[in-house]
Every structure is written in C-alpha cells, then in structure tokens.
Amino acid sequence: MSCTLCILAAGLGSRFKGGIKQLEPFGPNGEIIMDYSIFDAIEAGFDRVVFIIRKDIREAFDKMIGDRISKYVEVGYVYQELDCLPEGFSVPVGRVKPWGHGHAVCCCRDVINEPFAVINADDFYGKEAFVKLHDFLCADPETDGKLHLGMAGFILKNTLSDFGAVNRGVCKAENGMMTDVVETYNIRREADGRVYSGKEDTAELDENCYVSMNMWGCPAGFIEKLCGRFEDFLRNNKDSLTAEFLLPAGIDEMIKSGEADCRLLESRDKWFGVTYAEDKPSVKAEIAKLIDAGVYPARLWK
Fold first, then answer.
1. What is the DSSP letter of 201?
2. Any residues with CB less than 8 A from the CB of 197 and at least 6 apart, and which?
3. Where are the domains of the chain?
4. Residue 12: pLDDT band by 50, 70, 90 thresholds?
5. Contact 57, 20 (CB under 8 A)
6. Residues 233-274: tens digit of each pLDDT
7. CB 300 within 8 A of CB 31
8. Strand 147-155 to 260-267 pairing
9. From 291's CA, which of 32, 84, 213, 223 has a CA 20 to 30 Å away?
10. Contact predicate 164/183, CB 8 Å
11. Are 267 and 154 within 8 A, CB to CB?
12. Strands 177-189 and 166-174
C-alpha cells in the first residue's frame, strides 16, 4: 500500500533566532532534521513525501532538501496560505498568520488521497515511531464506518527542552485507545526536579505520561472530515485575528463524537528538536552519538 509522509514546515519559527529553523544543518554533511525523518520514513516503507511550506521559502527548500530528496522518493509541495479557506469564508481584516497546523493539513485536500503520516519539520522522532505508523497504516482497514487513526505517543520526560518551556498534547488512553488529547502549555522541569505546566495556575504533570508530538497516522478520507471540523472552527472564530485550528483538537473532537478512534502507538525513543536556539548544540551532539553508534551513516544520501 502506498503511504505518504506529510511534513508540517510552514511555521515561522519565532523562538529560533537567526534563520529558518527547519533548514538549520545538524548532521556532519549539512543534513537537517528533516533528512533524518525522511530517511527513517523511507526505511520504514513510506514512498512519498509532501512538504507543507510557505511560498517564500520554496527556493530555500529546493536547495536545502527538496532537490536532494527527490532522487530517492516522490516529492510534492503544498502551500499554507492565509487565504486557503473553504468556499464562503474570508480572511478577517488585520489577520496576518495562517490558522495553525490543522489548517495546514486541510490545505492538502486535493493532494493527499491515500493513507499518510503527518509530522513536524523540526522534531527528531527516531526510527521506532515511523515503523509503527507505517505498519498501522498498511494493516487491513476495519470497515465499521469510523476513521481509524494512530498516534505515536512519546513519554513526556523524553520530550522536554533544557532551555525553556514547551507545549505538548497530553494524552489519556484506555486499552491502547486514545480518549483525550489536551493541548498543554508552558511545560518545564523546575529546580525541584518535578515537571509543571501553566504559568500562574501551575499544575504538576506525571513525567511518564504520554504526549503527542504531532505525529499522526491518518487513513484515506481523514482530510475531508478534518475540513468539516475546520469549517465549524471558522464559523466560531470568524473575526479572530489569532485563533488557531490545532490538529490534536480537531482529532479530539472526532474521537469524542464517535466519528473516529485513535490507537496509541507507544514510542520509547528520545525526542529532540530545536524549539530554542540553545537546543542546537545538544541536537548536533545527539545526532553525532547516533552516527557513532551505527544507527545512521555519516552521509545519509549517497
């Protein structure tokens, strides 16, 4: 079965100073984080990659990764533009940013019709999650009328940054099936060694709970349903200049309505990414360790 890897790369990267963070080199031969994700995805069996980007960085993408990757896998592009909206909706006067990563996936409506996985461009996930998502997507689909999704669940303590707070979708599951995905903000480890979220009303979190790193396995037909949720969101936020349609929130609504279910696919790999500029040296060091251990070749693409 054909499976596509959809990479969310249209973010502005406002917390990472000094350039486009998705294109920052981290490997010994100029590899960026997406190189490693795509390498792992191809190894797991994915045969197509679709980048969701802004038009103004297309040239940089082609130069840094698109032209190189196209020699190994089919590549497509989708542009997340502010006015990429369903018929009958318009951009509120004064809004300058697109509508979030749920909106980004909706922009793929006419491009992705097969099962697909969606990931962030600036997150390093590890091999295990790609294998589990691919196997999940290629399994014989159930025919009970529901959308059957999968989510790679990472252990919270494996996803924290040493240089500041992060946002995560905190997950609850029963018998391996997701029941809740709660977008949780300002998660950090404090001096007492415990993990907290929030700013004024802080709450302690279990560091061993599962969180979403926005790595989902989606069946054919998912985008069409998500677009319906996006239309509901736009009706409720038609005048907002800042509201965002988040992918976990859209999926959570589908689960609670009975329209979909979602299997938690556990990953024990350690996440790392470039939320902050200070993360860069540690990410380079972690990749170097994996190369030394033989997990990756020093040069990914021959």
1. S
2. 170, 184, 185, 186, 187, 188, 203, 205
3. 4-292
4. very low
5. yes
6. 999 998 999 999 989 889 988 998 999 999 999 998 888 877
7. yes
8. parallel
9. 213
10. no
11. yes
12. antiparallel
pLDDT digits (tens, 9 = 90+) for 122-148: 889 999 999 999 999 998 777 778 999
| SS3 assignment, position 173 | strand
C-alpha distances out from residue 114 to 52, 98, 99, 131, 163, Å: 16, 25, 24, 17, 38
Strands (E) in the chain, as ranges, are: 4-8, 48-53, 74-79, 116-120, 123-124, 147-155, 166-174, 177-189, 195-197, 203-205, 210-218, 260-267, 272-273
What is the rounded distance in angstroms from the CA atom of residue 229 to the CA atom of residue 218?
15
3-class secondary structure, 77:
strand
Cβ pair 275, 167 in contact under 8 A: no
DSSP 250-286: HHHHHHHHTSEEEEEEEE-SPPEE-SSGGGHHHHHHH
Three-state secondary structure call for residue 200: coil
Collapsing DSSP states into helix, strand and coil, what is residue 10? coil
Residue 118: both structure tokens together: 């969606």
Tell me which residue of 33, 43, 28, 29 sits closest to 13, measured CA to CA. 33
Could you give the CA distance from residue 262 to residue 124 in angstroms, rounded to a whole number? 22
Q: Does domain 4-292 have CATH number 3.40.50.720?
A: no
Structure tokens at 79: 């542009």
Question: 201: which residues sit within 8 A by CB, 6+ positions away?
Answer: none
Phi/psi at 65 (5° precision): -150, -40
Q: Which amino acid appears at position 53 of this protein?
A: I
